[in-house]
Amino acid sequence: MNSDFRDKLSNAATVVEITLGMVILIACIVSGIGMVAMTDMNKLFGDPAYLQARMSSACLIIIGIELIKMITSYTIDSVVDVMLLAIARQMIVEHTSPIENLIAVLSIGILFVIRKYLYISRLDRRRSKKEIEGQVRLVEIPGADCCACCGTHVERTGEIGMVKFTGMINYKGGVRISLLCGMRALEDYERKQEQIRQISVLLSAKQESLVEAVERMKQESAEKDGQMVGLYRQLFGLKCSAMAPGDSPLLVLEEGLSPVQLRQYANLLMEEGRGSVILALTPAKEGFHYVLASRTEDMRLLSKTLNGKLSGRGGGSPQMVQGSFAAGESMIRETFSACTDGETYESK
Fold first, then answer.
1. CB-CB contact of 323 with 306 (8 Å)
2. Rounded mean pLDDT of 115-123?
3. pLDDT tens-digit map of 44-96
4. What's the number of CA atoms in the CB half-sphere (13 Å) around residue 30?
5. Is 86 buried (19+), middle (13-18) or exposed (0-12) by CB count in 10 A?
6. Residue 35 — very low, low, confident or very high, per pLDDT cuts 50/70/90?
7. For residue 167, what are the β-bridge partners?
8. Are β-strands 288-293 and 278-283 bridged in parallel, bridged antiparallel, or unpaired?
9. Who's near 135: CB < 8 A, 6+ residues apart?
10. For the chain, which terminal residue's Cβ has fewer other Cβ atoms within 10 angstroms, N or C?
11. Shortest CA distance to 314 belongs to which of 290, 331, 334, 330?
């Protein structure tokens, strides 16, 4: 029997277990609702036989729930719980003889001994599908964990030194934790402490007040950005007012604009009717950022032509396209003029 077949057989068994668990769960829910709905409170407190029958039904439902836990958790803990409940039900609900009661008590005692001393519950889980051959060294930290040894052997946890958790992400249905130990953890603390000290000096703030200082700086930066937006809007308005309306293609070049600002400028020129086709440029690291805008023509077709001739790239809507050209200024002017088939008014 090869490994693949065993895996498939195990997966099939898991599916059957889950299906049975769902059936038992539905049965427990339906039975629980039915028992509550059909219980006669007068008989419950006045008829011992009726009370005994209700207790028997309740115990069966509880055993069913514990059985579901046993199917899904794969632990001897859950198996012991089911056996304890079954024995307890037999003693409390059923009419048993003194010998049977003694045997039940001894059985419960044996189960508790097994649960307490003869196995480690944390090891009783399906942690891996890999088969392990030979002896396995188990490492247990009382009250914390017990697992197979998979690293450097130490005599005591104190040899590891400090442990620092540096990250945690969800991974394949579980959690992947990143950590540093010993001197590596200490060096990480020292390195980050030095970074905090340097940031404190740069911000002229105490280390315990760095968060407030950064938030204050962020707010001041946002306020300055808002002021800059307003100033650029005024600048674009003044430049647009200095240009006469026209139906010819218009090329404008402005230095130091971001792609967003360049788009705002081109949109203003288009809305104010300063040209039939607007080409706004601003220098970039390699070439120019550009925005093409027009109310009447499809800029996607013109952009495709210009990109092919000027080693450019970009895209957008029929009314406005933005991108970049990897070409010189004079080449862009000549190509734009040739592609628009008319006199081009250039403004700087």
1. no
2. 56
3. 777 777 777 777 778 777 777 777 776 666 565 666 666 766 666 666 656 66
4. 6
5. middle
6. confident
7. 178
8. antiparallel
9. none
10. N
11. 290
HSE-CB of 171 using CA atoms within 13 angstroms: 7
Ramachandran category for residue 287: left, alpha or beta (phi over 0 → left; psi -120 to 50 → alpha): left
Is 146 within 8 Å of 139 (Cβ atoms)? yes
Q: Which two tokens stand for residue 78?
A: 């859950």
- 39: which 2 tokens? 């219980």
Residue 118 to residue 337: CA distance in whole angstroms: 90
Q: In this model, does residue 151 exceed pLDDT 70?
A: no
Residue 290 φ then ψ, to 5°? -140, 155
Report which residue type is found at 253: L
Look-up of token digits 């450097």: 152
Cross-strand partners of 177: 168
Residue count of the chain, please give it: 348
Do the beta carbons of residue 270 and residue 293 sit within 8 Å?
A: yes
How is residue 84 written in tokens? 């304890």
Q: pLDDT tens-digit profile of 241-291?
A: 888 888 889 999 999 899 999 999 999 999 998 888 999 999 998 899 999
Q: What is the pLDDT of residues 77-91, one digit of tens each?
A: 666 666 766 666 666
Of 89, 82, 88, which is closest to residue 68 (Cα–Cα)?
Answer: 82
Which amino acid, 327? Answer: A
Pairwise CA distance, residues 213 & 198, whole Å: 14
H-state helical runs in the chain: 3-38, 41-46, 48-73, 76-92, 98-117, 182-203, 210-241, 259-271, 299-310, 329-340
User: Residue 94 has what pLDDT?
Assistant: 62
